[in-house]
Design a protein that fits this description.
The complex is a heterodimer of chains A (359) and B (334). Chain A is an all-alpha fold and 359 residues long. In chain A, 73% of the residues lie in helices and 2% in strands. Chain A has helices spanning 13-16, 23-43, 46-72, 80-97, 103-122, 130-150, 182-204, 207-217, 219-224, 229-256, 261-264, 267-281, 286-311, 315-336, 340-354; strands at residues 163-164, 169-170, 173-174, 258-259. Chain A is globular, with a radius of gyration of 21 Å. Chain B has one domain (23-260). Chain B has helices spanning 3-36, 43-59, 65-72, 85-106, 116-138, 155-162, 178-200, 202-212, 214-219, 224-250, 259-270, 275-296, 309-320. In chain B, 67% of the residues lie in helices and 0% in strands. Chain B is globular, with a radius of gyration of 22 Å. The chains are: A mainly alpha (359), B mainly alpha (334). At the A-B interface, helix 6, helix 9, helix 12 and helix 14 of A face helix 3, helix 5, helix 11 and helix 13 of B.
Chain lengths: 359, 334
């Protein structure tokens, strides 16, 4: 009864095609936006910002990007870390060459550069499929990380090989660098994430999104009914890389501030966790990208709290325990609900529709 | 012979030897993929786990010593000072078989009929879990593994080749690590016995039947699950051999599990479903990598091509043969 669809009649195509066709969804979404934009900025503190909210937003964006490619277009990619590195390093280089440019524009341009790189590394997908492609995308991961590590031009010949962000402002308030207040970095990420997720949601409902899904479901059949594989696959690679690039730029400029490429964009710290996010959240689901990111970001914090603070293990042993539990949870999750958290949510909706009289 | 030619031969020889090491890891992947359709990312961690366990048995460490000591304030470390290599290897083998059984019971059984990507993710989870368990059981410090395989440059080869160069040239003979020669010999024995086993024994025939067609194998009365346990145990055994070889060369530590990433280009080059493919792919990648390092690597001041060169090489091959060199032909129907 809580989730009632009956009685909500649609009298025009426009209202039938709305993003949130149900009243309940609309209310829930507006409440969420209200809390995110008007309440959290006033109560946020540095711990919540650094440990939970900002990484959650950034990884949601990366998960949306990978979901477009893997969930909607069916091309498995393990090169997320490499593409995020492209976004980060483009931001760094543009920042040094154009000191006066607005940070928002810099980040969007970095996304475009990543999209171009994504198209190049997407080219093999026209010949190679399935796991062969997944392994081939690892080439981009290793090549890009190697490039940024070994060509000194990318890190401006600094001795340590690190890149460090300089302070940039939006409307007079610093959003990058050490001085940036928590609410500013949070809001900056939030605006980008909300805008880009709306764009993604609408792209997926458009002709382009439908052709992605056609290619995913069966590429030969899609080709026969007139979906061009070249254009479709490459557009998926480009747009997915754009999102991942923006996420990488934020990861560097807003979240970490200073990075070392082999450490921050490693396959174990970025590529696999992001893939896990979209699988645990639900392949081919926008909501799933967010749920997966939230799960992956908060779980280690919870585990660490449990291990170190409650049981009293040393940090090293706790770390080993964390890896073990992490792996076991991945397996258990895949066994119990291989379609992810988004599927659990739709089951919950189904139940709520009949509540409190299930029959 | 000129010095350049001799150097070239030396590079190729060393490349072939390191290629054998890649093949050893790739072989485990191929066996599991053929028999159960699982792309087992945990193969590298298998090798790490086997090597850790072997060292643990050899030196008599108490499993989970760190954990127990921290939880209960005790001070356990070792049970006994040392154990014969033979016994330790045997015990490790038993452990790997037990591991295969546990994996089949707890993981694979519940994931039958899932998408390949889900199974792949599950093996990534397995890799994390196993790595954590290995560290908890035996500690994460770098360990020295010595099972009596000699290592170091082969003096015999060095002296034999020194005379081949032209008179008066500056040539010191070829450098080939004895350990690599041993690895090659062991790998050859392993592959030959594997081939004989699958060709001439009843279980081997069942193994090939399952690899060909699951349903047909089931319908003639082959138990899929026992075959899966067997296959995972065999790859556990191969992982142990690979773990011993790599562990002797560079010590037993976390980075050992990254050899899985080294084996992936070998796999796509040779084809996921072909055992000869894994071997020839490994040799090709080994030689290609070493040659590139010497003849192309010099042009980049930055060096260290070997992280990605293998992948690019495999990618170029794939553009011409999307199923790898020896993989099953991909037939697509609408």
């Amino acid at each position: 009864m809580i989730y009632k669809e009956t009685g909500q009649y649609k009298s025009s195509y426009k209202s039938d095609h709305a993003i949130f066709p149900l009243l309940q969804d609309k209310i829930a979404f507006s409440t969420l936006m209200f809390i995110a934009f008007l309440i959290i900025p006033f109560v946020i503190n540095s711990y919540w910002e650094k440990a939970i909210l900002v990484p959650f937003l950034i990884f949601s964006l990366a998960a949306i990007g990978l979901n477009i490619l893997t969930g909607y277009c069916g091309q498995v990619s393990l090169g997320t870390g490499g593409f995020m590195a492209v976004g980060a390093f483009s931001t760094y280089k543009i920042m040094t060459y154009f000191p006066d440019m607005n940070i928002m524009i810099i980040i969007l341009i970095s996304g475009l550069i990543t999209a171009a790189v994504g198209i190049i590394f997407g080219l093999p997908s026209l010949r190679i499929k399935g796991f062969y492609l997944a392994v081939a995308t690892l080439a981009s991961q290793f090549f890009l990380v190697w490039l940024f590590n070994k060509v000194p031009w990318f890190y401006n010949y600094s001795d340590t090989g690190q890149i460090t962000v300089s302070e940039r402002t939006m409307f007079g308030i610093p959003v990058t660098g050490a001085e940036a207040p928590s609410y500013a970095t949070y809001l900056f990420c939030l605006v980008l994430v909300v805008t880009l997720s709306f764009a993604a949601k609408n792209l997926i409902r458009s002709k382009m999104g439908r052709s992605w899904m056609a290619i995913r479901d069966m590429d030969i059949a899609a080709e026969i009914i007139g979906v061009p594989p070249l254009k479709t696959k490459l557009s998926a690679f480009a747009i997915s890389s754009f999102y991942i690039g923006v996420a990488g730029a934020l990861y560097f400029a807003v979240f970490l501030g200073a990075i070392e490429v082999t450490e921050s964009f490693d396959i174990m710290t970025i590529s696999f966790p992001v893939l896990f996010m979209i699988i645990i959240g639900g392949l081919g689901s926008m909501l799933g990208s967010f749920l997966g990111a939230a799960f992956v970001v908060t779980l280690p914090i919870g585990l660490k709290f449990l291990m170190v603070d409650m049981v009293g293990l040393s940090a090293v042993t706790a770390k080993h325990f964390e890896i073990t539990i992490w792996g076991l949870l991945m397996i258990i999750f895949l066994i119990v609900e291989p379609h992810g958290l988004a599927r659990l949510w739709s089951i919950a909706k189904e139940k709520l529709r009949r509540w409190p009289f299930p029959y | 012979m000129s010095v350049e030619l001799l150097n070239f031969i030396e590079t190729v020889l060393n490349g072939l030897m390191s290629g054998v090491m890649y093949s050893l890891v790739a072989l485990g992947f191929v066996l599991i993929f053929k028999a159960s359709g699982v792309f087992n990312f945990a193969q590298g961690v298998f090798a790490l786990f086997a090597a850790l366990t072997l060292v643990g048995y050899q030196t008599g460490q108490v499993p989970f010593a760190h954990l127990i000591n921290e939880l209960f304030g005790t001070n356990y470390h070792n049970w006994y000072a040392s154990m014969p290599n033979f016994l330790a290897i045997l015990l490790t083998m038993i452990t790997m078989i037990a591991l295969a059984w546990i994996i089949e019971r707890l993981v694979l059984k519940h994931l039958i009929n899932q998408d390949p990507i889900i199974l792949f993710m599950a093996t990534i989870g397995l890799a994390f879990a196993l790595e954590g368990v290995g560290d908890l059981m035996w500690g994460s410090d770098v360990k020295v593994l010595d099972v009596g395989i000699p290592s170091g440059g082969s003096i015999w080869l060095e002296e034999a080749t020194i005379g081949l160069a032209a008179e008066g040239s500056d040539y010191y003979g070829m450098y080939v690590d004895v350990l690599n020669i041993w690895a090659t010999v062991i790998a050859v024995i392993l592959v030959v016995s594997l081939a004989l086993f699958s060709q001439y024994t009843k279980t081997g025939r069942a193994l090939r039947a399952v690899a060909d067609d699951h349903q047909a194998a089931l319908s003639v009365g082959i138990s899929l699950r026992s075959i899966w346990i067997l296959v995972w145990a065999i790859s556990g055994f191969i992982a142990m051999v690979a773990g011993i070889m790599w562990g002797t060369e560079s010590g037993v530590q976390f980075s050992l599990s990254l050899i899985a990433l080294k084996a992936l280009p070998v796999l796509i080059l040779g084809g996921f479903t072909s055992i000869p493919g894994a071997i020839i792919g490994g040799l090709l990648i080994g030689v290609g990598e070493k040659l590139a390092e010497i003849y192309i690597g010099g042009y980049f001041e930055t060096g260290a091509l070997e992280n990605w060169f293998a992948y690019v090489m495999a990618l170029v091959f794939l553009l011409f043969r999307p199923q790898g060199l020896f993989g099953d032909k991909i037939i697509e129907r609408v």
